[in-house]
Amino acid sequence: MYIETYGCQMNLADSELVMGILKKQGYEITNEIDKANVILLNTCSVREHAEEKIFHRLDHLKRFKRNNPTTVIGILGCMAERLRKNLIEEKKIVDVVVGPDEYRRLPEYLELAFGGEKGIGVKLSRTETYEDIEPYREDGISAWIAVMRGCDKFCSFCVVPFTRGRERSRSLLSVVKEVEKLSERGFKEVTLLGQNVNSYNDNGKDFADLLAAVASVDRNIRVRFTTSHPQDMSDKLLHTIAEHNNICNYIHLPVQSGSNRILELMNRSYTIEHYLNLIEKARKIIPGVSFSTDIIAGFPTETEEDHQMTLDVMKEIRYDGAYMFKYSPREGTKAYNMKDDVPEEIKIRRLNEIIELQQKISFEINQQLIGSEEVILVEGTSKKSDQFLSGRTDTNKVVIIPKKDNINIGDYVKVRIIRATSATLFGEVN
Ligand code: 5AD
Ligand code: SF4
User: Where in the chain is the domain with CATH 3.30.750.210?
Assistant: First the structure.
């Protein structure tokens, strides 16, 4: 079997889960599509564009299927959940459609497909966490661990509560055990994943408890987490991050908009004042903490004034990084019933202003790091040149350093920053 993953990190984790399930059934995993008897696409529905990409990919696979008619093609993930049997009706080459809570039964659906029938499994579950299933992971430095599934927040723009169902947490113990195994295998970084990790709850044990337990497994393993919701971020969590050296000083805290009126329409359940207070508090409790965010441009009814408020908040907070998007209406969400009334060219212009501002801020922040010393975890060879290695700081900044015989992937290395762009730092090792 061969799998392609689109969308968020949760999907990456789910693909490993799916590989784990199929491997146990005797399937062999291959990175070469031509060798596969099963081709799976783990898909994303978060924006229209994400779905368009999959449809293009399916058109491309049509030719493949013509030449290899016995190959089973399956759609997993959020698009499977959203479009269900329509996918099979519209795209004849699709044999199997399985949503995020039915992966356990994937082998059955594949069997059906090998027998010439279509397999559809899209029931959502209130309890499925897959915590007993070991994901398939190649040896490496960094691992994703889904500690929760689903989302109960119902932000008005977001399709995730519909595609991934209700929120539920894995047990703390199962996560700790998984980290212990990763430690034995030499992993150096784990990222705990959930749509809203701050509402993690295992019989009263909250996310701060989970982070502390995970961080205590192996002090040589860095612990990251995403995504945090500004409403649920507790002081206890901030103190926990500060207290554990190996919990990274980096918080992804989506703001979405700087306007209280828009935040309310988005059903984000916080005000910008609450958000700014939270940032201030976090900066006090965790010296040197870095922040990234998500921002949506052109939500329904957004005025120039609202847009300006978003730019103002960005200037005030000075995020280290941001993921920035144009609003995309998603069927079934509350915002879908609102008129998508910001014209496309205005959305594009506002998004570009947001991107330009963020690049300027990131560039300035990174310039200030020149001359400083940072510890990086070396993660691999640089994508651009095999003479260089790539790593990240605790604050999640990518640092490129020259290759050296005594530096290995997985090492923590002290580097001096000598040059910086808005996206990358360049360092030297003494
Ligand atoms: N349109 C644009 N961006 C969206 N996001 C989620 N839904 C939409 C949408 N309908 C963005 C949000 C979220 C990130 C994962 O994707 O910023 O935080
Ligand atoms: Fe991930 Fe959301 Fe996309 Fe689903 S819709 S893959 S949860 S980003």
Answer: 137-248
- Calculate how far, in angstroms, residue 155's C-alpha sits from the geometric centre of ligand 2: 14
User: 73-123: per-residue pLDDT in tens?
Assistant: 999 999 999 999 999 999 889 999 999 999 999 999 999 999 999 999 999
Strands (E), 200-343: 201-202, 205-206, 222-226, 250-252, 290-297, 321-326
**CATH code for the structural domain at 2-121:** 3.40.50.12160
Ligand nearest to the CA of 268: 1
Measured from CB, residues less than 6 Å from any atom of ligand 1 are 46-47, 157-158, 254, 256, 294, 296, 325, 327-328, 330
- The tokens describing 60, both together, are 């491309």
Q: Which of 269, 385, 395, 247 is nearest to 320 (CA)?
A: 395
Where do you find CATH 2.40.50.140 in the chain? 373-429
Q: CB of 11 closer than 6 A to ligand 2? A: yes
Domain 373-429 matching CATH 2.40.50.140: the answer reads yes
Pocket residue to mutate for ligand 1, from 296, 330, 333, 336, most atoms within 8 A of Cβ = 296
Ligand 1 mean position, distance from CA 183 (Å): 34
Single pTM value for the model: 0.96
pLDDT tens, residue by residue, 119-161: 999 999 999 999 999 999 999 999 999 999 999 999 999 999 9
DSSP-derived 3-state class of residue 365 = helix
Among the CATH numbers 3.40.50.360, 3.10.450.60, 3.30.750.210, 3.40.50.1360, which is that of 137-248?
3.30.750.210
Rounded Cα–Cα distance for residues 271 and 235 (Å): 18
Under 8 Å between Cβ of 154 and 267: yes
Other CB atoms within a 10 A radius of the CB of residue 67 amount to 8
The token pair at 165 is 């169902």
**Is the Cβ atom of 160 under 6 angstroms away from ligand 2?**
yes
